Amino acid sequence: MQTITIDPKVTFRRSDRLYMQFMEPLGTTDSSVEAAWDHLSNSWRESFLEVVRDLAPGCIRWGGIYTSFWKWREGVGERASRTPAHNLLWNGMETSQVGVGEIVDFCRQVGAEPLIGVNFAADGRPRYINPPIGDSRAGDALEAADLVSYCNDPDDKLRRAHGVASPYDVRLWQIGNETSYPPAGQRFTYQENAEHFVEFAQKMKERDPSIELIAWGDGAKDEEVMWAESVLSAAGELADYVAVHMMNQQPVAKPTILEGRSYMDDRPRAWDEL
Questions:
Q1: DSSP assigned state of 13
Q2: How many alpha carbons fall within 13 Å on the CB side of residue 227?
Q3: What phi and psi values does residue 133 have, to the nearest 5 degrees?
Q4: What are 151-164's pLDDT values in tens digits?
Q5: Cβ neighbours around 131 below 10 Å, total
Q6: What is the pLDDT of residues 24-54, one digit of tens each?
Q7: Which residues lie across from 108 on neighbouring strands?
């Protein structure tokens, strides 16, 4: 007879960032942000806040592909002077009533840490650098650094002019989102991803050396290499994390249970395929 002893003592702290959620304006496809905002009262809908509090995410990431054409200055300051923007991926218009301050306020109300993505030179995507309507939506390293100052510098003149005396204190930032996913020629190369990350990271950390930065590290469908190696080699200690969304993984089994929601019907087979 064997005796098994289970020691429930906690030997390490679980990161609050382990269970995260994601927020991106999805235009007419799914008005996830606009529908959660009450334009009559200029506040988040209480029913929305209640659901997110119940889910209790430790961290909420703002951005996604929207950050490839997001101009953060359009969503700060007086509401009447904010600039609506075309959603170049999902169609429709974004009112810009949900901007930097509203994102941070939402995170505070639900007890989550904010993670903000920056406009990483439009991730090298021509469709956002030269859009079919309006001016270029590509951001640069200075624009990203200014956003860090707006959020974290106690003396930032623009934020204080907007009536916000205390800094937002955003610690976690992402530079590059799904940068490798479009076909070659419609995005940065992995070398450009690494070079531009260093440029952005240096400018951003000049404004606040204490921030943590996430680099884009997933691979492309038409390449054998993961981008993490090149960006970490170039960035060194400038990169605190790498993001890998794993969207380019292809199921080996044919037919597969991993497409759609079929995996819900046969969990053991799903695990075998994974």
A1: P
A2: 31
A3: -145, 135
A4: 999 999 999 999 99
A5: 17
A6: 988 877 777 888 999 999 999 999 999 999 9
A7: none
Instruction: Scan for tokens 């992995």, then name that residue.
Output: 190
Helix extents (H) in 72-140: 100-110, 126-129
Q: CB count, 10 Å around CB of 34?
A: 18
Cα end-to-end span (Å), the chain: 36
**Is the CB of residue 219 less than 8 Å from the CB of residue 248?**
yes
Residue-wise DSSP of 170-221: --EEEE-SSTT-SPTTSS--HHHHHHHHHHHHHHHHHH-TT-EEEEE----T
Please return the burial class of 31, using the count of CB atoms within 10 Å of its CB with bins 0-12, 13-18 and 19+.
middle
Number of C-beta neighbours around residue 232 at 10 A = 17
SS3 37: strand
pTM of the complete model beyond 0.70:
yes
DSSP-derived pairing of the beta strands 93-94 and 85-86: antiparallel
Angstrom distance (rounded) from CA 172 to CA 103: 13
- As a whole number of angstroms, the distance between CA 226 and CA 73 comes to 33
In this predicted structure, what is the pLDDT of residue 170? Answer: 98
Provide the 10 A C-beta neighbour count for residue 41.
9
Secondary structure of residue 26 in the 3-state scheme: strand
**Nearest in space to 128 (alpha carbons), one of 188, 61, 216:** 188
